[in-house]
Design brief:
Immunoglobulin-like; 20% strand; globular; Serine Threonine Protein Phosphatase 5, Tetratricopeptide repeat; DUF5107 domain-containing protein; 35% helix; alpha+beta; DUF5107; GH-type_carb-bd; Beta-galactosidase, Chain A, domain 5; TPR-like_helical_dom_sf; seven-stranded antiparallel beta sheet
Length: 986
């Protein structure tokens, strides 16, 4: 990203200094109210550099066990080695017990969570912003709470969100943060909320699928906790096993009973039987020597958390397990390897663990579904605990620790003042100990029973009025070992059409990075060409990639069988999908007929009703559209898109007052809804991507003039490193103008698109696909539209079509360096024309000789093509200054130097610059170091800190097997995959 305007060349403060509340709010705080305000924070910051100019087509990249595909996001590959003082926008929340800081420019993360009663940061406060190359699109920062959706880590984690402050009738304050998902255009709002008189931090979440398609998602809150030898992660007592990513492996918990991540914990415990805690206790950070994830397999309880025995403080997380089953710990590991990663992410703070909470998911990857227009709402709760010990039971009201070593000792902590609360121990139905006490946040109180415990045991805290605040009983669970996932067979090895369909569905739903669902579905149709489920799955896939005619053929095949004997099937998805396709094919009447039929099914009634109403609105049938919306009231789930459409229709029907009322009601529920804000005249951020999406909403509702005004506003904004949508805005305007017969204005818009800055112009989505196609149809000479359409198609997986568009663009005279590079990749991967690929890279590097990314890719291609190390080294020697600006290219250069007898020179380079590893890519610099030392006859040595990594004690499971095939369950494969031919897929 570009440098913040408030950045100084000074390194910035070593610690974050929290400002006092503004004078206007201090009286409210003194009176016990909760307050919130905006005030920038100056934080020592290592700036992320600007993104690469080239789209990263990482279709087969494995990331967090799922797809690491990053297109259309620009990819950031470098972070500054020198810190600066930078002012970050910050929103502060405070009450008598808590102090929080939310950073909107970093995804709306909670960066500070401070317990005033115990002088303790219950979430890890990182005093610097020091990104490491861990995120999906590059930079990622540690500390606080990161909110991850619709995949992990969140695509927009290093991008800004819009915020607003809400004051509730109950005295609460909420900082709402609105996230715009750059991949699917879905919307998420998370509200960080505190209340007067309470230590509870609530995060209220609204996830809204504002698209016309069913989407997959997961949601994890990634909570960092600063750790040391005394830090313990605690889970409910009924947790007996924990699992790795995708349930590919498991072990007992809290005492690991088998090798896990290559570590034989049972052997470590046997070798040190006197150790406290035992060396096989993986709930203690000190015992885990390697980067390790574990997610609980199951629990009947709603809480978990972490506790620092040395500090006498920690935190609890609570959420209803029926929708929030996910409970996970991650650590880099307490060993030199992990400490090196800590140093990449902070200056003086750390180490830390992550204690993550998953909603609608219990593993990673583990995706759920959102129907078109569907909204899911939920809340998560956290609160600090004082010197309680690990909680054995917790609610939003209180937590309890129960010591059963000698009799029963129950220690309680509360989240709000509880005068005359009743502590009670019950044995076999009889109250054996009871007393009243005034309990306050930040302190604990206890009750003890030293007698025998024979029979059922129960510990409880009640309010003075008798309400149960927390109740604990011993857990009794079945110790049977849970299931472990296995790799699905190849299509030819699967017996039934149903299993072929379900396997393909799993691969699609979980976004599997190295195995496609298409061969499974195609094999199913070979056996039964009319299968409804498979045809709908393939129809949906073809529709999403813009292959409308093929998609419609699959839907019609499905409908033919589905309605052969029953015109009213139990599931009307085929009608709904058919309506979407018919819309794209320019057949609105047929589409409306399909949507009308889809509305007979309650599952699809809301989505189909919205699409039908929008179609009628575009055709000017206002009263008919309003009748459709009225028919959904009271029977269909709430969808803010429907209410925005209602407001548009009411305005057209001269009901401006009613329309304004509808918009106010929408904004009361979704205060940062961009389309509702625009229509209501409320000011919004000048975010080009968000404005363009608002324009797309308006076009879908038939508000063409308003949409054109927004698109014009987009084209007047500066190019944004989060993605350049300016050329697309021109092309969308051109398509809208052409459709209503304004031919000259449309031609002018296309001309403006061709004259636009194309940096980071990575279009995606069906609206972009249609607009670029319309531009080519209107003007066959438009090379820019072909170039951009090729980007979109390649990102969508339509590689042959992409190469055809890129070739056409070059034939029409466009020699943009990004076009040349993209075409070179496709010539290698798709056409298998090595000479054409090499010649295009040669031309590209002549065009941009100082482009280090281009030089790196050219060298990687040279290696693929079998060029000698001497020839490769000669090229890099000529551009040495450029080479040394990139870590990966420098490592290649060092390796080549060593191979060609210049190991001393190579070692000097390794000792003379800092390197930044990336998650899963560890070992590259270390291997070069070892190779160089060996060539010089030096004894093996630990690498210098400048290499950014340390030697691991244990060997992690390899992502790529010895036979060269990628492990089906690989969680990370960061290698450059731009030159990956289809038959090389693992």
């Amino acid at each position: 990203m570009t440098m913040h305007p408030e950045t100084s060349t000074a390194p910035g403060p070593a610690e974050i200094e929290l400002p006092d509340a503004p004078s206007a709010l201090r009286d409210e705080l003194a009176e016990g109210r909760a307050i919130a305000w905006d005030e920038p924070l100056t934080i020592r910051t290592y700036d992320a550099h600007e993104p690469s100019a080239y789209p990263m087509f990482l279709d087969h990249r494995v990331y967090q066990g799922s797809s690491g595909k990053v297109y259309p996001l620009p990819f950031i590959e470098r972070v500054s080695d020198e810190p600066r003082a930078r002012q970050w926008q910050a929103v502060h929340l405070e009450n008598e017990y808590l102090r929080l800081v939310v950073l909107p420019e970093l995804g709306g993360r909670i960066h500070v969570a401070y317990d005033k009663t115990t002088d303790y940061d219950f979430f890890y406060r990182n005093n610097v912003i020091k990104p490491a190359l861990v995120g999906l699109a590059g930079p990622w920062v540690s500390g606080g709470v990161e909110f991850n959706w619709p995949q992990h880590h969140r695509p927009a984690t290093h991008l800004p969100v819009e915020t607003s402050i809400e004051h509730g009738d109950d005295g609460s304050v909420t900082v709402w943060c609105a996230d715009h998902d750059p991949f699917t255009r879905m919307a998420a709002q998370h509200g960080v909320r505190i209340r007067p008189g309470s230590t509870v931090v609530e995060v209220a979440v609204r996830l809204h699928n504002r698209t016309s398609e069913r989407q997959t998602f997961l949601w994890w809150a990634n909570v960092a906790a600063r750790v040391n030898d005394d830090y313990q992660s605690f889970f409910p007592e009924d947790v007996r096993y924990v699992a790795d990513h995708a349930r590919r492996a498991l072990t007992a918990f809290p005492r690991a009973d088998r090798p896990y991540y290559g570590v034989d914990y049972a052997a470590l415990a046997a070798a040190a039987p006197e150790a406290v805690p035992a060396a096989d206790r993986i709930d203690f950070y000190r015992n885990i020597p390697v980067p390790t994830s574990y997610m609980i397999v199951d629990s009947e309880d709603d809480f978990f958390g972490g506790y620092d025995h040395g500090a006498g403080a920690g935190f609890v997380h609570w959420a209803e397990r029926r929708i929030s089953p996910g409970k996970k710990q991650w650590t880099w590991g307490d060993a030199p390897f992990g400490h090196a990663w800590d140093a990449q992410l902070t200056d003086e703070d750390g180490p830390y663990v992550e204690l993550m909470a998953g909603v609608y998911t219990d593993n990673q990857p583990d995706f759920s579904w959102l129907l078109p227009g569907e909204t899911k709402t939920f809340s998560q709760y956290w609160y600090p605990i004082p010197a309680l010990g690990p909680a054995h039971q917790a609610t939003p009201d209180a937590a309890v620790h129960v010591d059963r070593s000698e009799g029963v000792r129950a220690v309680f902590a509360v989240t709000s003042p509880r005068p005359a609360a009743v502590m009670r121990i019950v044995v076999d139905g009889r109250v054996v100990a009871e007393r009243r006490a005034d309990l306050h946040p930040g302190t604990v109180d206890e009750i003890v029973w030293e007698g025998p415990v024979e029979g059922a045991l129960e510990v409880e805290l009640r309010s003075a009025g008798g309400a149960s605040l927390v109740r604990w009983t011993p857990s009794v669970v079945d110790d049977a070992e849970p299931w472990v996932a296995d790799e699905p067979p190849l299509p030819a090895q699967i017996d039934t059409v149903e299993e072929l369909y379900l396997t393909g569905l799993h691969l699609s739903q979980f976004r599997h990075p190295t195995r496609s669902p298409l061969p499974y579905w195609e094999a199913a149709l070979d056996r039964d060409p009319g299968d409804v489920r498979v045809n709908l799955a393939l129809g949906d896939a073809r529709y999403r990639s813009g292959e409308y005619a093929e998609a419609l053929r699959h839907v019609e095949t499905a409908l033919s069988r589905l309605t052969r004997r029953n015109a009213n099937p139990t599931d009307a998805e085929a009608f709904y999908l058919g309506g979407l396709i018919l819309q794209r094919l320019g057949r609105p009447i047929d589409a409306e007929r399909a949507f009308g039929k889809a509305g007979w099914d309650g599952t699809w009634a809301a989505a189909a009703g919205f699409e039908l109403g929008a179609s009628l609105a575009r055709r000017g049938r206002i009263r008919a559209a309003l009748r459709v919306l009225d028919s959904l009231d009271g029977v269909a789930a709430y969808d803010s898109r429907r209410e925005v459409l209602r407001a548009v229709l009411l305005r057209r029907a001269e009901g401006a007052t009613e329309a304004d009322l509808v918009l106010r009601e929408v904004l009361a529920v979704e205060p940062l809804n961009p389309t509702a804000r625009h229509l209501s005249g409320a000011p919004g951020a000048d975010d080009p991507g968000l404005l363009l999406d608002t324009a797309l909403d308006l076009l879908h509702l038939g508000e063409v003039d308003d949409a054109l005004g927004l698109l014009a506003r987009v084209t007047g904004l500066p190019v944004c490193a989060a993605g350049n949508v300016i050329p697309l805005a021109h092309y969308l305007a051109a398509a809208a103008l052409q459709e209503r017969g304004e031919v000259d204005a449309a031609a002018a818009a296309r001309s403006a698109a061709r004259d636009s800055d194309l940096t980071w112009a990575f279009p995606h989505g069906l609206a972009a696909f249609d607009a670029l196609g319309a531009a080519i149809a209107a003007d066959d000479s438009d090379a820019v539209a072909r170039f951009l359409l090729g980007n979109l198609l390649y990102g969508q997986g339509r590689r042959e079509d992409a190469l055809a568009r890129w070739r056409e663009a070059m034939e029409r005279g466009l020699r943009d360096v990004v076009l040349l590079r993209n075409a070179a990749i496709a010539e290698f991967t798709v056409a298998r024309d090595d000479d054409a690929a090499w010649n295009l890279y040669e031309e590209a590097t002549r065009t941009a000789p100082d482009d280090a990314r281009l030089l790196f890719e050219r060298d990687q291609l040279a290696a693929k093509l079998g060029h000698s190390t001497a020839d490769r080294l000669a090229v890099l020697d000529e551009r040495r200054e450029v080479v040394l600006t990139r870590d990966d290219l420098t490592i290649e250069y060092v390796t080549l130097l060593t191979s060609e007898g210049r190991a001393g020179e190579a070692r000097g380079i390794l000792l003379g610059r800092a390197f930044h590893p990336w998650e899963g890519g560890e070992g590259r610099a270390l291997a070069a170091w070892d190779q160089t030392n060996a060539a010089l006859g030096l004894a093996p040595a630990d690498p210098p800190p400048s290499l950014g990594e340390a030697r691991p004690r244990y060997v992690a499971p390899a992502a790529v097997r010895d036979d060269g095939v990628t492990d089906y369950f690989a969680t990370s494969l960061p290698e450059l995959l731009l030159f990956h031919r289809e038959d090389e897929r693992g």
